[in-house]
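Summary for the steering committee. The consortium agreed at its last meeting that each partner would contribute one worked example illustrating the joint modelling workflow. Our contribution is presented below. We chose a case with several input lines so that the handling of multiple components could be demonstrated. No manual editing was applied between input and output; the record is shown as generated.
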Amino acid sequence: MSATTSDTADERFLRLPSPLRRLLSRPELGSVVGAIAVFCCFALVADSFLRASSLGTVLYASSVIGIMAVPVALLMIGGEFDLSAGVLVTSSALVSSMFSYQATANVWVGVGVSLLVTLAVGAFNGIMLARTRLPSFIVTLGTFLMLTGMNLGFTKLISGTVSTKTVADMEGFTSARALFASTVTVGGMHIKVTVLWWLALVAVGSWILLRTRAGNWIFAVGGNEQAARAVGVPVTRTKTALYMGVALGAWICGQHLLFSYDVVQSGEGVGNELIYIIAAVIGGCLITGGHGSAAGSAVGALIFGMTSKGIVFAEWNPDWFKFFLGAMLLLATLLNTWVRRRAEASK
Amino acid sequence: MTPSDTRTPLVELSGVGKHYGNVRALEGVSLEVHAGEITCVLGDNGAGKSTLIKIIAGLHRHDGGTLALDGEETRLSSPREALDRGIATVHQDLAVVPLMPVWRNFFLGSEPRRGTGPFKRMDIDLMRRTTRAELLRMGIDLRDVDQPIGTLSGGERQCVAIARAVYFGAKVLVLDEPTAALGVKQSGVVLRYVTAARDQGLGVVFITHNPHHAYLVGDRFVLLKRGTMAGNHTRDDITLDELTNQMAGGTELDALRHELRRTP
Amino acid sequence: MARISTWVGIALAGALTLSLAGCSSTGGKRAEDARAAAAAEGKAAVNTPRWTFAMITHAGDGDTFWDIVQSGAKQAAVKDNIRFLYSHDDEGQQQAQLVDAAVDKKVDGIIVTLAKPDAVKASLARAREAGIPVVTVNSGSAESKEFGALTHIGQDETVAGEAVGEELNERGREKALCVLHEQGNVGHEQRCDGVAKTFDGTLVRLHVNGTSMPDVQSAIEARLQSDPGLDAVVTLGAPYADTAVKAREGAGSDAEIDTFDLNAKVAAGLEDGSLGFAVDQQPYLQGYQAVDLLWLYRYNADVLGGGRPVLTGPQIVTGDDAAELREYTRRGTR
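What follows is the complete predicted structure of the assembly.
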């Protein structure tokens, strides 16, 4: 009383060796090809692109997006969006700065308070989503607008201006700066510490996604929420945790912003949330959820960094900057899709 | 395997009913599920089969009558509770995540882990091996358990879902129209697994609107018509023709035949 | 859902945080309060009726320059017993609607900026018909009289740009980078155009994403790395000057950083030499004068300027002047 799957399926599989097969089916493959293409393009067009110092600049630009792209990608795999991610970074920096200043406290206290507040906003997003059952697009759009207003309003109310007061002369600033905004020099290349944070987040994100039970739940919740619920996966808890992950990323970026520039402009961050989503999608995350990777989002962030800075290195007409950026991103995405289709066809 | 009335049924519904507002979805339904037996629930569309499933699966609470598990009267409050009490439901949409590999789907919600503290990770080797072994035991030989479950055929997916239920120690297997969307050969595959599960000692509730499939495997038959019970038989006291007749509504079919006959 | 222990934990964390308040020995609000607070404010110096003046500018959200304009306006409002209303929108159509709203509210005076003059033309005509006096500030000295404003206070962006160009010439710069941080901002384009007009060397432009400082920094850094011929970087907003200084360090360049507008960091930068010069148009004065001149008109039908714009700049600020202005920039009035 046994039955086997059709032999043709086995045949197809046996054509390729197992590790190569696994490699081709990884979601990041297409984006890596895209990254190589973009790199080659700018290496050819801009002479200064290949220098060590230039690569350091590109890595910095990529890392600032990449830190957020990892949790945003995980959230997208879980089937949801967060439009408030961009301004949450600014909120985090503002809370740190204003709390430390107004309480004349050690700057680390402000950093700690900021972490709690930012995580609370993340939890708020998750709980609102569960309660209202509205699409996450709508819920986080509401949060986005509220945060934008609060950023401006509270800063004006507490500091009297649209930017915060300097905290550079307060205790703890130098040590906090060392953690969040310092530079390491490696053989001619200046690597900002955000690159290290980025790599760490990619490693942690990948491990969670691929090796832990939580990762299984994330894939399931994004792939088929009903099915996940039916087999006992805690859907609300998973999604709330994902939103708090985005908040954690925002906290890291926000502290970097604060300790790098000291004075925080309250109107910043608007528009960045879409860039994080773009980086995740280029890296292979499906907009509908259930498929993607943290490493892919890193590649996506790298492509974005290379493109936006490559255009500057190549000294293309600045008025057309946004056009070039959009065109290159589209090309990278098309390449990504094409490669993925080819990989799937060979399966 | 002859049905035995002396053992306590795994699941027993007595006069169960369910109302949605003014709509009476179920009323006065009774059925028994014994270990090692298959109880078929038959009925046309709208007969109340899905409501019945949802009550047994713990998705809904019944309004009238009693639900007894192992002789003990209960009210199931959630699917999780039903699962914990050994009732595994394979829904029509199968509760699988199409993009995820077979081995991840197999253990979804009950992933085995190793390691401690923040380094707790899934025991992926165990999961892969077990998935292959369990499917093999049920007769499916999957070379690659990494393929997304969406690439399997409908029948294969049903079988994975059943194998999953059997592995996780289900005592009662509830199948919601497993052969509804399948062709003859695929249906045969599924029916074989259903009997394999029965042979493992599970009790099976098999919901269908196809009397032929039901008669192939069933030990007991419960007919539902518009929310009420239209018949409760064991295999011994009904034939396939009678079953089909009762399901299709014998008199109504006669009238229809009369109406549709060509006029000379 | 939340257990008792979670709430206890949160309460303890809150208490601990509050107890840590005040634990920095330097800087912070305590230091600010300790500094002789030259906060003017005060009380009304006149007995005229409490008129309402509305200021509607083309500022974007969170623009520090307009903060200073508002400070000046508010100070004059306090002195002249004026109820001061402020609104802003960087889109021309929306700004016009805000002007309409002020006219509907029957305010006693309107102050506008004419960055996008055609958009607000009709609304200002309505104001004129309603008998509301209008004063223009900052942008639009050319159109001001034609639109029926009493006077224009400020300094044309183009004129400021020209001053920058001339100063760059004097310092012997040969290739300058104009950093535009807000695409489509007419004032910014005018500033760069002004520089290009008088600068003898080459002026190149760079568009950056002003809502992301790291992006601004890395873009300027990239440009400095790719073009070693650049020996001056001109930013169009005070906050971006500091970012440009960081970019210069990262690129290992020795280009001079100059900027439009002042703030505390710019004043400090001028003093310690990391910035070359700043061009200031005295925004506090613009806001202050606008309100005060409207009051004078209402009180005494006085008009300043003789039909010509009243200039508040441009003023080139270098390291020598910066020391004097330091305290004022910290206060947010320069």
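Residues 11-97+170-184+192-260 of chain B form a domain with the Rossmann fold fold (CATH 3.40.50.300). Chain B has nine helices and 13 strands.
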